[in-house]
Design goal:
Layout lengths: L2 H16 L4 H22 L6 H19 L11 H26 L3 H23 L2 H4 L14
Helix pairs in contact: 2-3, 2-5, 3-4, 4-5
């Protein structure tokens, strides 16, 4: 390995890990972990019919985490990433809420009840993600100058 490659490796590592320290990075990582735990709970139950939601949301969150971590979202400009992330988290919020209510009403088996309760927690987590990534909320307008610009 050349000296220039060795010197650029820490910078590359720093660039790749800097997103994981942000609020959005921690939130995406928490979504992946929570989806994995819900998937395990649904798989441990007698019927794993609801596990597909956890798999799909875990994959979507992991893809977005990789795109944001590697800064690929700035290189692929034909996708509107804030709206994509907002709709992903909004749809996940709605689907986890419906699935959790159905699972808790059925209430067969302790692992399904735990998965339903964790699904409600995932509803809150994805809802918070949708709230902080709402694109229109992030647009800031500069205040109009009130002082004349041509002197006193």
């Amino acid at each position: 390995m050349a000296d220039s490659e060795r010197l650029s490796a820490p910078g590359c590592w720093l660039a790749c890990t800097s997103f994981s320290r942000t609020k959005k990075g921690i939130l995406l990582f928490a979504e992946i972990i929570l989806c994995l735990v819900i998937l395990i709970c649904f798989s441990a139950s007698t019927t794993s019919a609801y596990s597909s939601l956890s798999v799909i949301e875990m994959i979507c969150a992991a893809v977005l985490l990789v795109f944001y971590t590697c800064d690929l979202h700035s290189k692929i400009s034909f996708i509107n990433w804030p709206w994509t992330d907002f709709f992903r988290s909004l749809i996940a919020t709605i689907l986890y809420l419906i699935t959790s209510i159905v699972v808790l009403v059925e209430g067969r088996g302790s692992s399904r009840v735990v998965a339903g309760i964790l699904g409600l927690l995932a509803t809150l987590l994805f809802g918070y993600d949708a709230y902080i990534t709402f694109p229109l909320k992030q647009q800031r307008h500069t205040a109009a100058p009130t002082d004349p610009t041509d002197g006193p």
